[in-house]
């Protein structure tokens, strides 16, 4: 029978290295707090270089045996891990909501989403095929085989503390790699709980290792992985600035990198669109996790003929959204992750108002609820001079930009160094073909706001990074191709 845990029983305060829970080598700790009210949840290990090195040592020791396991054996462990995640969905969802702040329904939804990657890569583990290359010379046979790349360092963000690390660990384990991981300092408890369940599922000691570190110590801890030639791959989700730093600092050992970085997603509403569907799709895409996702629409372009009507429809729906702590089961928008996030949101709104935007709803902090709450906001008369046009707000703010012609919308949508997600709504089939090809993004939602799936490739272009997660392509970055040439056969 699959074991279940109470939420408190999932909390681990130590690092997980070599199959054991151990404190930081120097005994340091840092606080993890509830963003809704600032209350302490736990004091966890604050790791530095020595802890990172210990994790790498454990991963290196475990690699030879793990890479030789049969794919079906790795798949079975992943299936057991998936079953444990699903069985503990309520407890994991509650933990996510407590340390990250998203509503309980979204916390439970994230668990299901993260678990789907584990299930997917359990199946993909048994489908790592090579190729027999057509014979070019008599007496010579050529083939290509795929092998695990080696030790993988997984560095994950705070906004999806379970899903992001699950979709990195699962393909790594499926491919036969060992892992060293570090979750975001704001939300380490969910990652530790996920590792606890992986250990319960039978992942061997040293195959999966996790350290936690405060913001002050993270750079030092991760830098050891960047320099260590034994670590062959870095997989990172986070800001473009940090992604560039990882690429630069790992260059000396020429590591393989998967970088899922910042976004500035456009959302285009053409005048022939179903406005009700477009409003629903925008709300689903924008207000999930309070606007704190990398694929959230950041710039909403609405064609002039339907601009006023769409703005009124959207403002009416957004004004009815309930804001509050995750402990309230009716809440749709929780707290932002911290004070820095709220300050940035407020700065973007103030700058937009100063430059001529108008507030249809929201636009203010909600101190009565707590220090990190911001009202869901709709702004009209936005333009390209405003900070929110060029910077990702990462909060519950929708600015509406007006456009006249299709080419104008496409040009504006692409006028950014980023290219992660984009969305558009239209009922014109020819326009669907034109616009989907013209948009410079790794993900395109066509009359749809919820586009992520374990079966689809996730990743961006331009300064939104490279590499893909999920789908049949998601295993490729954890494998290297070896060419075998056998001669003297004639």
How would you describe this structure in keywords?
22 strands, seven-stranded mixed β-sheet, six-stranded mixed β-sheet, Aldehyde Dehydrogenase, Chain A, domain 1, Aldehyde Dehydrogenase, Chain A, domain 2
Structural write-up:
With 490 residues, the protein is of the alpha/beta class. The chain folds into 2 domains: 275 residues, Aldehyde Dehydrogenase, Chain A, domain 1; 189 residues, Aldehyde Dehydrogenase, Chain A, domain 2. The protein has 14 helices and 22 strands. A 7-stranded mixed beta sheet has the order 14-15-16-13-12-18-19, with helices on both faces. The chain has a 6-stranded mixed beta sheet with strand order 9-8-7-10-11-21, sandwiched between helices. The mean pLDDT is 97. Its EC number is 1.2.1.16. Keywords: Oxidoreductase. GO terms for molecular function: succinate-semialdehyde dehydrogenase (NAD+) activity.
In short:
This protein is of the alpha/beta class and 490 residues long. Helices cover 37% and strands 21% of the residues. It folds into two domains: 7-261 and 464-483, Aldehyde Dehydrogenase, Chain A, domain 1, CATH 3.40.605; 265-453, Aldehyde Dehydrogenase, Chain A, domain 2, CATH 3.40.309.
What's the helix and strand layout?
Blueprint: E1 15-17, E2 20-22, E3 29-33, E4 40-45, H1 49-67, H2 71-87, H3 89-100, H4 104-124, E5 131-133, E6 141-148, E7 151-155, H5 163-175, E8 178-182, H6 188-201, E9 208-210, H7 215-227, E10 231-237, H8 240-249, E11 256-260, E12 265-269, H9 275-286, E13 297-303, H10 307-319, H11 339-354, E14 358-361, E15 377-382, H12 387-390, E16 397-403, H13 406-414, E17 418-419, E18 421-425, H14 429-438, E19 443-446, E20 461-462, E21 465-466, E22 479-486
Parallel strand pairs: 7-8, 7-10, 8-9, 10-11, 12-13, 12-18, 13-16, 15-16, 18-19
Antiparallel strand pairs: 1-2, 3-4, 5-6, 6-22, 11-21, 14-15, 17-20
Helix pairs in contact: 1-7, 2-4, 2-5, 2-6, 3-4, 3-6, 4-5, 9-10
């Amino acid at each position: 029978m699959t074991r279940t845990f109470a939420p408190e029983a999932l909390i681990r305060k130590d690092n997980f290295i070599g199959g054991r829970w151990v404190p930081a080598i120097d005994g340091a700790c840092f606080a993890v707090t509830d963003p809704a009210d600032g209350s302490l949840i736990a004091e966890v290990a604050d790791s530095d270089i020595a802890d990172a090195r210990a994790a790498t040592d454990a991963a290196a020791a475990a690699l030879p045996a793990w890479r030789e396991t049969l794919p079906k054996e790795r798949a079975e462990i992943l299936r057991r891990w998936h079953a444990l995640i699903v069985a503990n969905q309520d407890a994991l969802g509650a933990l996510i909501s407590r340390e990250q702040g998203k509503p309980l329904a979204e916390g439970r939804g994230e668990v299901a989403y993260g678990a789907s990657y584990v299930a997917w890569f359990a199946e993909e583990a048994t489908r790592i095929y090579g190729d027999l290359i057509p014979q070019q010379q008599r007496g010579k046979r050529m083939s290509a085989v795929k092998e695990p790349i080696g030790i993988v360092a997984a560095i994950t963000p705070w906004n999806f503390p379970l899903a992001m690390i699950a979709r990195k660990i699962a393909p790594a384990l499926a491919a036969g790699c060992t892992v060293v991981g570090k979750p975001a300092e704001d939300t380490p408890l969910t990652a530790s709980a996920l590792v606890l369940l992986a250990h319960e599922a039978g992942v061997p000691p040293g195959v999966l290792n996790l350290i936690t570190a405060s913001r002050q110590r993270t750079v030092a801890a991760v830098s050891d992985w960047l320099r260590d030639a034994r670590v062959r791959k870095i997989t990172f989700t986070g800001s473009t600035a940090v992604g560039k730093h990882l690429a630069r600092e790992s260059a000396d050992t020429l590591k393989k990198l998967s970088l899922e970085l910042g976004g500035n997603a456009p959302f285009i509403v053409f005048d022939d669109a179903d406005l009700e569907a477009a409003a629903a799709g925008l709300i689903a895409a924008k207000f999930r996790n309070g606007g704190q996702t990398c694929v959230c629409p950041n710039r909403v372009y609405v064609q002039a003929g339907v601009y006023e009507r769409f703005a009124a429809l959207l403002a009416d729906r957004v004004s009815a959204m309930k804001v509050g702590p995750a402990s309230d089961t009716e809440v749709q928008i929780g707290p932002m992750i911290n004070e820095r996030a709220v300050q940035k949101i407020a700065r973007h709104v103030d700058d937009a108002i100063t430059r001529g935007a108008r507030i249809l709803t929201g636009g203010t902090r909600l101190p009565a609820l707590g220090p990190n709450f911001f009202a869901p906001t709709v702004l009209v008369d936005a333009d390209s001079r405003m900070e929110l046009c060029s910077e990702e707000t990462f909060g519950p703010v929708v600015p509406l930009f007006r456009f006249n012609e299709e080419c104008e919308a496409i040009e504006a949508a692409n006028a950014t160094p980023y290219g992660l997600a984009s969305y558009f709504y239209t009922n014109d089939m020819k326009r669907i073909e034109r616009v989907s090809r013209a948009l410079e993004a790794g993900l395109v939602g066509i009359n749809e706001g919820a586009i992520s799936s374990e079966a689809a490739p996730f990743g961006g272009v331009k300064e939104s990074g490279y590499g893909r997660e999920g789908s049949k392509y998601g295993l490729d970055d954890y494998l290297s191709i070896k060419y075998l040439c056998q001669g003297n056969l004639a």
